[in-house]
Amino acid sequence: IVDKTTALTEIEETFKMLVARDDIAIILINQHIAEMIRYVVDQHIASIPAVLEIPSKEAPYDPSKVRLLLYYDLPA
């Protein structure tokens, strides 16, 4: 849980730790928190775990900021 006392480095390191785990398929993150570590979020290009930016009560949601990664398993 991120609150006003959570250090930016702690948010970054926790995000990096979560995307590195092989037992997590989806990460939900409030969009305004993702904006705080956008450069780290944008470095994650794998489809699993999927990173979903969700709205929060604290900040308006901007759908234009959401990066969508589509993966298709096409036949060879």
TrEMBL record:
One of its GO terms (molecular function) is proton-transporting ATPase activity, rotational mechanism. Pfam families: ATP-synt_F. One of its GO terms (cellular component) is proton-transporting V-type ATPase, V1 domain. It comes from the Eukaryota. Signal peptide: none annotated. InterPro entries: ATPase_V1-cplx_f_g_su, ATPase_V1-cplx_fsu_euk, ATPase_V1_fsu_sf. Keywords: Hydrogen ion transport, Ion transport, Transport. Gene3D superfamilies: ATPase, V1 complex, subunit F. Belongs to the V-ATPase F subunit family. This is V-type proton ATPase subunit F.
